[in-house]
Amino acid sequence: MEKILVIGAARSGLAAAKIAKKFGADVILSDAKLESELKFDFDELRGLGIELRFGKQTEELLSGVNKIIVSPAVPIKIPVLKAAAQKNIPIISEVEFAYNLARSPICAVTGTNGKTTTVTLLGLLLKEKFSKVGVGGNIGVPLSEVALEVGEGGYLAAEISSYQMEATKNFKPHISAILNVTPDHLKRHGSMEVYQAMKERIFAQQTAEDFLILNYDDARTRDMIDRAACKVVYFSRQRKLAEGAFVKNDSLVIKFNGATHELCTIDELGIKGGHNVENALAASMIAFLAGVEAEKISSVLKTFQGVEHRIEFVREIGGVKYFNDSKATNTDSAIKALETFAGHIVLIAGGDDKGTDLTEFLNLVNERVDCLILVGDAAARFKTCALEKNFSAEKILEAGYSMERAVELAKEISRPPQVVLLSPACASFDMYSDFEERGRDFKRIVREL
């Protein structure tokens, strides 16, 4: 009997442990945290006969183990995984485990920003052609679970993060896409070069019968064609392409194999903002290559309204609109949110500071933000840098570690035509378990005003 060690007791780890057990393996699930520190109920796993090991992870965990499955949150540099590598025990990611289970083709999307919107839209587009479609990965549903559920004869849309690629070697989607690459997760990866290398693993195993979709407007992604063995197709918001998905006379079009297909105008597109034009172009190109007809792509583009926590309208109070952009966990994503509005923004920002350069972000804050309300660990650095950029001290307010106080301050000072925007440019872990919890708390507070 194969003995599998699953490291990381979060959603993907739990799913991998249950599936491995279902297929007859002897399974250990381990997490460095104590059971009392984890938010999951482990009774079901105990009932299935899965051995649970919490707390300090020593080499003793590796006894008799044939394979290790690693959750995305677990860095491959931890001591127990280094020891496993020295013992030549195979280490795979949950994503690679899912790939080995999959019996339907995979469309895999990565990038610093736009992944969730693109993959959610892609899932809807694929449903226009295929009766069985699964959407999973970094989007919140374990990909292994989705792969098993879809089985044969369908299609999988996978959101892939750089974390998920660390322990991935053989993952081979039929269609992959890289939306953009900007500084993020540098604390974990150590440098932009390593971060980009993790992103590029998404197409490393693809061959001539596969497709890679790249953003022509992003210099880092455009040049990836030099390292791809598969067919590369570009999308572009800024340039008319000889082949690919692009904007022509304010309309989204696909040009492929000599034929041009007009999808919809920018005004007709259900999701707004320049970044969402890019997301729609990428999703449309992937779906088209998967076999979805252009007419069906067009109808979905007009009706899709976006995803929770991404420039999500919450409510209007006294003529002031409130937007939840908690998904903006880095400055590049927050910049895209700021660009969506013409100005007069009351911005709530801050959180778990990633230490990234704030120059471009604060330049736009100077142009479009009337008042900056800061929260969390990042507040002090954000304030210092904003003052250095000559943002007025009177327009900077601090709410400590209270989202409630931040929203109260925003309500006190905002007047039409201003909008209130939560777009933190930071992770959430100083105050919340994830960006979803942060966004839902913001919405709750706004709705209770």
Radius of gyration: 23 Å
Helix content: 25-40%
Strand order of the largest sheet: 7-8-6-9-10-11-12-13-14
Structural class: alpha/beta
The DSSP helix count reads 17
Compute the number of structural domains: 3
Beta-strand segment tally: 20
What is the end-to-end distance?
58 Å
CATH fold assignment of the largest domain: UDP-N-acetylmuramoyl-L-alanine:D-glutamate ligase
CATH class of the largest domain: Alpha Beta
Strand content: 15-25%
Stretches where pLDDT is under 50 for at least 5 consecutive residues are none
The CATH superfamily of the largest domain is: Mur-like, catalytic domain
Summarize the structure.
With 449 residues, this protein is α/β, with parallel strands linked by helices. Helix content is 35%, strand content 22%.
What does this structure look like?
This protein is 35% helix and 22% strand. The mean pLDDT is 95. It starts with a strand and ends with a helix. The longest helix is centred in the middle third of the chain and has 17 residues. It is globular, with a radius of gyration of 23 Å. The protein is α/β, with parallel strands linked by helices. It contains 17 helices and 20 strands.
Question: How are the elements arranged and paired?
Answer:
Blueprint: E1 3-7, H1 11-22, E2 26-31, H2 43-47, E3 51-54, E4 67-70, H3 79-86, E5 91-93, H4 94-101, E6 106-110, H5 115-126, E7 133-137, H6 143-150, E8 155-159, H7 162-165, E9 175-178, H8 186-189, H9 192-200, E10 211-215, H10 219-222, E11 231-236, E12 244-248, E13 251-256, E14 259-265, H11 274-290, H12 294-303, E15 312-317, E16 320-324, H13 331-340, E17 345-350, H14 359-368, E18 369-375, H15 379-388, E19 396-398, H16 403-413, E20 419-422, H17 435-448
Parallel strand pairs: 1-2, 1-4, 2-3, 4-5, 6-8, 6-9, 7-8, 9-10, 10-11, 11-12, 16-20, 17-18, 17-20, 18-19
Antiparallel strand pairs: 12-13, 13-14, 15-16
Helix pairs in contact: 4-6, 5-11, 13-14
